[in-house]
Design brief:
Elements (H helix, E strand, L loop, with lengths): L15 H11 L2 E5 L4 E4 L23 E4 L3 H10 L4 E7 L5 E6 L5 E6 L1
Parallel strand pairs: 3-6
Antiparallel strand pairs: 1-2, 4-5, 5-6
Length: about 120
């Protein structure tokens, strides 16, 4: 048996603001929208991963989602231009990851990072 994919589900009602947040911040494509559920995607592929954590590292809260991007500086700038509150400022961590935290409109804590 092999896990082929893991999908994150974010509870939100209505879904419009949350869907648009991910489209605007991450340039994700809407690949399905049934009104009560929308699925967003990029053309990228990555290995299946699940992280289990007691903390988020550097004394931060455990994020709900970790999203790796190819241009962290551009994503950080876009987050600022969108007027998002940065919960954890842009930081290069001792383990080599560069990241920052924001919350989506549903309140989910996002760890936005690059390796």
């Amino acid at each position: 048996m092999a896990v082929k994919r893991i999908v994150t589900n974010i509870a939100a009602a209505p879904i419009d603001a949350v869907r648009q947040f991910y489209v605007d911040l991450f340039d994700l494509d809407i690949v399905m929208d049934m009104g009560w559920i929308a699925t967003l995607a990029s053309g990228e592929t990555a290995p299946v991963q699940i992280s289990i954590a007691a903390q988020g590292g550097s004394g931060t809260a455990v994020p709900d989602l970790s999203i790796e991007v190819d241009d962290l500086d551009a994503t950080y700038q876009r987050a600022q231009e969108m007027g998002l509150t940065i919960d954890y400022e842009l930081t290069t961590e001792p383990w080599g990851v560069r990241r920052f935290y924001v919350r989506d409109p549903a309140g989910k804590l996002l760890n936005i990072l690059s390796h």
